[in-house]
Specification:
By secondary structure, the protein is α/β, with parallel strands linked by helices. It folds into four domains: about 270 residues, Rossmann fold (3-Layer(aba) Sandwich), CATH 3.40.50; about 90 residues; about 70 residues; about 45 residues. The chain is about 55% helix and about 5% strand. The chain contains 26 helices and nine strands. The protein has a four-stranded parallel β-sheet, sandwiched between helices. The chain is elongated. The N and C termini lie far apart (about 65 Å).
Amino acid sequence: MALIEISVQQALANRLGETAGWSDGTADNRVSPVALPSFQAPFQLEPGEKVFTIGSCFARNIERVLASRGFRLPMLDLLRQPQFKTVNPAIINNYGVPSIYNDFSWALDPEARFDQRANFIEVSPGKCADLHVVATERPRPFEELALRRNAIIEATGTVVDCRVVIVTLGLTELWYDHLQGIYLNSTPMLRVLKADPDRFSLRVLDFGETLGFMRRSIDLLQSRCRRDQQIILTVSPVPLINTFRQDMDVMVANSYSKSCLRTVAEHICTDYAHVHYFPSYESVTLSDRKVAWLDDNVHVTDDIVRINVDRMVRAYCPPDDSMAALDEAARTGGALALLEEAKKHAVGDKAPGLAFFERFSALSAESPDFAEEAVKFYIRRQMPQEARCHLDHIPADWHPNLRALRMAQIHVLSQNYAPVPGLLEPYIVHGAKLALQRRMLILAYVRLDEVGKARRAVLDWLRSLPGDEYDALCALGDAFCDAFPAEAVAAYDKADALKELDVQRRLAWIECLIQSGARDRARAALEVFDPQDPYQVAAHNRLAAIL
């Protein structure tokens, strides 16, 4: 059965969405070095409110950053209790969907009971291990484990008072306790497995069982917790450290595990209106490994965690655009922490963009990706000198084609056209779209009075990409507009025969008609032109005055 069904009209409209396709390297880059997949934030976090977190080690990373932002975290409060002072915070990690359900049921379901006698296994005289915490935790006396377990159950019960719950899904390779008929949270101690091998077995969950346990968790929360509760669901990017599967590479086993969890998350978010997916998994796994991963290839960097939690907090919290908040982000996370903010300012309004890039200009020396956003902003604002200052921080071997494009744009803004062909020609190969580069090359040839080369560039474009005839003719018209108005009219006429000219080019076409002496055609075209905004009204009035 289909997960969702979309009408033809809606599907075609969706395909045109801003993030419906991948960046091509010259458009807004949402992938490198840090992948920033878009997401919806349908509710707002309240500053300082209590947020319940549960799941794998990535949940601990989220807690740490949320706490630094002033939120209250019940599970962090748990770790501050005396009986947890000497333990690893990983003691409350919860890796499997069934074990997440176990913790919720022990805390919220009166009919469910944590059986201490069955779950605390004596591994040495007077020392026991809790089957539902990580096996790296040292064995403790039974009474001490009981105090800890009761505290965990009590802390988990605070979820009933939390409006916001963040759940991080970890893995699907889980150990099963046949004696109790339940899944464990992690691998039991080796001595426990060897002492009673018939009691335990490893199971690899399938999609149906994983989805079933996830539904049971959500349904339990709905029945016991606040009616306005909202759940943010994530999949941990942290992979399996090892796999127990026979003749299977851990990379392949991990791919199955994460695919299963990601699919379950999609089904849950589709079926429950109050559950919302946050794409931290996609962000980390699609980012540059040098930025996202520690040398062990298992754990993620503090920078990538901070970036993702900052994104979540900014999306779900009332906007805080104060420079103080940005200063703190830059202090703790450097250029990467402000990269998404830089991307927004690069395409945003002029005044706040100027303030932002002037204040944090030093970060361009730290990160070529930050410098690229600054260059884009200053080019867009036609400030070539400032753009060149930031471009100089970008190494020559950093995306050479993109760097060459930016340098060419700066030269065009400075009306220095001679270097442009040498910068762009090496990258314009047969079949490459590169419409912006092709338009700039044609413009440079015309400005250099090499009209023949401009025409050949158009022909090369058409031979390489026949479907781009409209764009190629418009580019030729744009290039001819100032110096060769009659040539521009001819190019625009051919383009208009293929597809109606856009408003800006229609105005340019009318102006070229006037300059080339075709005033009657210009007057007729202006009479049917319907201006829609103040810019178009002003242009219409200016041309009307000339005529």
